[in-house]
Write a structure and sequence with these properties.
Chains A, B: Its EC number is 3.5.1.15. Chains A, B: Keywords: Cytoplasm, Hydrolase, Metal-binding, Nucleus, Zinc. The structure is a homodimer of 315-residue chains. With 315 residues, chain A is α/β, with parallel strands linked by helices. Chain A has six helices and 13 strands. Chain A folds into two domains: 226 residues, Aminopeptidase (3-Layer(aba) Sandwich); 65 residues, N-terminal domain of TfIIb. An eight-stranded mixed beta sheet of chain A has the order 3-2-4-7-5-6-8-12. A three-stranded antiparallel beta sheet of chain A has the order 9-10-11, with no helix packed on it. A two-stranded parallel sheet of chain A has the order 1-13. Chain A is globular and about 65 Å long. Chains A and B meet through helix 1 and helix 6 of A and helix 1 and helix 6 of B. The complex binds zinc ion (ZN) (2 copies).
Chain lengths: 315, 315
């Protein structure tokens, strides 16, 4: 992982998976993956094994986020090491199968890269989600993608939060990367969202092909939004929400939220202000799937990560 | 229903119901109705019995459109007259209960007015849905609402189509009226959509109160969009869709679609044009719930309906 000229030499990335349908009602990834299963020409790259894969076929079939439990929280050590048994929740069974096919998680046998394709009802645009600030391969890939899609943009969300980080489907791979594109309602396929996702995947695969071919990527920096806090809706004693995201905050993902800015609007017309000391950058604002997770939005702070130069390690 | 001065004298409208949660993932109506069940001050009017009501509590509980079958298609004569039995689909049971409580449909005992509150993922804005072009009470109410909310607007969708008209929950009442507001993703509550719905309901109830107090409403006209045709997505032989709503059509509900205009974009990048002879006005464009109904959008034509003056009949 290092060399005299400060170039980090990394293992070749030969096996890549593209997951759609980790959540069965997020239609862009499901549609792309199904399309690529039928005809993979578009995603083929020199020397790469690329596997498009529907993570949760039963949830896709029913066009619902999940059957028994959220697959994208199910890749815990407990679940993955639990004995096979009748009556396990569908997504736990599925997590164990996926771990056998693409993992085992944390092992040298694991797939090199898993892209996991998601949609959000939030106005987040295209967002790459990282689980580590020290994964040079992913940082360089993200940098490459951002440059390649300019003048279009793509935000980078980094989740290393000790409590809020969760056990994703993609975490089975050595280099897990989430791609979240919105706004798109659940069960809907919007052409603009579909095309954004497709373009980002194209550049991501190009990056991997170039890396494997021996290209050296110079040092770079990546602007990221680091997950800080989960903000819940105001609720009554029965747990029912009593306010909505304020119209001044709605759809303003990634824009600064300062102390004193409107945050919620109660049903009886009262504005609730943000009272945190520091400016934050909210994201996943009013995501449909997060009502049940007690989350109206997530706060982040901005940070610049530096990445070493990388190239493929010599054998 | 008539008089010498061309004023139609109509029966007083004493009993009014407001339904939310006919579809359990359409959050504006659900939230408003639950709020009004707890505190009805806002919807009380002189001499009116107003009943806020959750139509499909189990679907609301699960935040899903329906449990077994679409409640808003379930009010058929066959269902309503079927014998009570174990094992009926949940929504059929529920339709029979609602018919007992607010009907019977078509009888003089039925509620006078049912407002049924819906949300759509389509960019339709606020839309009042009528089931009859000859219901003077509803036409006058719609006219009143449109004037009251100006400069905001509200479209009127008229469905008298022999094949495409369906047996709605609200059809139990003498004067059934749907209110559809979007765009709002399923499972999401947006403050702007919530407030639009609330405002329209306010004016609707004001109208009924004025009518019951003896106010005469002069003749008027109402611009409506009349349901013409259901347009499906292009599909392959397995029934899977092969194209998306074209970006030039997406979000353009109520705007004219002319022969030769782009309609769909196939996954391999081909544009499919609208080839109908006449200009139509599409609506319910890319509504999430209509993928399973084989409908990408609905075409309508514009029409102006004239309504007689009305006032309450003398006893
Ligand atoms: Zn997702
Ligand atoms: Zn509905």
């Amino acid at each position: 992982m290092s060399s005299r000229t400060n170039i980090s030499c990394l293992q070749e990335a030969k096996r890549v998976a593209i997951f759609g349908g980790t959540h069965g009602n997020e239609m862009s990834g499901i549609t792309l993956v199904n399309m690529w299963i039928q005809n993979s020409a578009e995603i083929e790259r020199n020397g790469l094994v690329i596997k498009p894969f529907i993570s949760s076929p039963r949830a896709v079939e029913k066009c619902t986020r999940y059957i028994d439990t959220d697959l994208n929280r199910a890749f815990t050590p407990e679940n993955l090491s639990s004995p096979d048994a009748e009556g396990l929740p569908y997504e736990v069974q599925r997590a164990k199968e996926i771990n056998r096919m693409f993992g085992p998680k944390g092992s040298s046998d694991a797939y090199d890269v898993i892209f996991d394709l998601h949609n959000t009802t939030s106005n987040m645009g295209s967002t790459l989600i990282l689980e580590s600030s020290t994964d040079l391969f992913n940082l360089q890939m993200v940098h490459y993608i951002k440059k390649a899609i300019a003048p279009h943009t793509c935000s980078v969300l980094l989740n290393e939060h000790p409590q809020l980080k969760y056990s994703t489907t993609r975490s089975v791979a050595k280099h897990p990367i989430g791609l979240e594109v919105g706004p798109q309602p659940q069960g809907v396929l919007r052409s603009n969202v579909f095309e954004s996702m497709r373009t980002i995947l194209k550049h991501a695969l190009d990056f991997i092909e170039l890396f494997n071919s021996g290209v050296e990527f110079p040092p770079c920096t990546v602007d990221v939004f680091r997950v800080q806090e989960r903000m819940d809706y105001p609720r009554d004693t029965n747990g029912n929400i009593t306010a909505m995201v304020h119209p001044h905050l709605q759809d303003c993902d990634w824009e600064p939220l300062n102390r004193g800015d409107p945050m919620f609007l109660t049903f009886d017309g009262r504005t609730i202000l943000y009272e945190g000391a520091n400016t934050v950058y909210p994201t996943f604002i009013n995501e449909a799937a997060y009502y049940e997770k007690q989350q109206a939005f997530m706060t982040t702070c901005r940070e610049i990560l530096a990445a070493n130069a990388i190239r493929k390690a010599c054998k």
